[in-house]
Amino acid sequence: MIEDLESLSGVGDATAKKLIEAGYPTVESLAVTPLRELVEKAKLGEETARKVIESARKAVGINFATAQELWEKRQAKKRCSTGSKKLDEILGGGIESQAITEFIGEYGTGKSQLCMDLSARVQLPPEQGGLGGNALFIDSEGTFSPERVYQMATAMGLDPKQALTNIIVSRVYTSDHQILIIDNLAKVCAEENVKLVAVDSMMSHFRSEYLGRENLSERQQKLNSCLHKLLRLAEIYNMAVVLTNQVQANPQSFYGDPNRPAGGNIMAHACTHRVYLRKGKENSRIARVIDSPYLPEEPVRFKITDKGIEDDTNEKNGEDGIGKEINS
């Protein structure tokens, strides 16, 4: 890695080591890093940091591009299956790389189960619906269960012990701890062939620590910084990022679902695809895309079984309100 960084103009051995220690191990990670962030994290002078970033951007060809060139670049995107054909269908084929997919819902709607299932499934080869890589699971609520992943991996035909070895878990206890982990993801993702980052949940600590309107601005600024770092990582390493989000009651809502996603406009703008989950009848779950650049807003039903995420074979549409309007 040091050799790669030293190929940049103005980067010697000492500067390369500083950059790696600060969490910027690759030329690509430097190319998409804001100047102020590099100055603060790598302890570089502003002029030095500017030269390093400019050199990195030149090396990776970040400049103007035609729409055709952008379209060709986007063909490198990959998709990881969820295990449910119906859910994959509304997601355009599965969880998309180079993007952030957010799952929103109340307690018990299957958000953590989806993250654990994907952490195992991403290890499958592409022809079997995976991405052929490892997973990194950021657990802010103590929801990660190795026993459950063992069960899911076995059902998928994976060696369950190896599957657990291929999942890196970080239990975070505060929002500052969560920010620190996200700050250092670039190095881990590059070294460990990470193809999926799951954060369960993104808002938990931010909601509990930043109380009152007087702290809202600071909370949203920190949250925004984290989300954009995750999006940059997704694009740099062509990996998928999955976030779970809690809901909060909207007291002004008199009709329909009174819940709305936590995090406000910051979460809404940063996430590429937003999927709302709710419970259906007979242990089924209903998923609906509520915001996406191109995915359809059509509700589908899936089930959580011993094997993981599967299609719900009960197709009695409307019986449990699958067509009911969902507030976004």
Characterise this structure:
This protein is α/β, with parallel strands linked by helices. Helices cover 41% and strands 20% of the residues. It is built from 15 helices and 13 strands. The protein has helices at residues 2-6, 13-21, 27-31, 35-42, 46-60, 67-74, 85-90, 111-121, 146-156, 160-165, 175-183, 185-191, 204-209, 216-236, 264-270; strands at residues 79-80, 95-96, 99-104, 134-139, 167-171, 194-200, 240-245, 247-249, 259-261, 273-279, 284-291, 300-305, 308-311. The chain has a 9-stranded mixed beta sheet with strand order 5-4-6-7-3-10-11-12-13, sandwiched between helices. A two-stranded antiparallel sheet has the order 1-2. A hairpin with a 2-residue loop joins strand 12 and strand 13 (308-311). The chain is globular and about 65 Å long. Mean pLDDT is 89; it is low at 324-328.
Written as H for each helix and E for each strand, in order along the chain, the element string is: HHHHHHEHEEHEHHEHHEHHEEEHEEEE
Helix content: 40-55%
**Average pLDDT:** 89
Query: What's the shape?
Result: globular
Q: How far is the first residue's CA from the last residue's CA?
A: 44 Å
User: Segments where pLDDT lies below 50 for 5+ residues?
Assistant: 324-328
Total DSSP E strands: 13
**Percent range for β-strand residues:** 15-25%
Number of helices: 15
Computed Rg: 20 Å
Q: Give the strand order, joined by hyphens, for the main sheet.
A: 5-4-6-7-3-10-11-12-13
Helix/strand-derived category reads: alpha/beta
Largest sheet: 9 strands, mixed
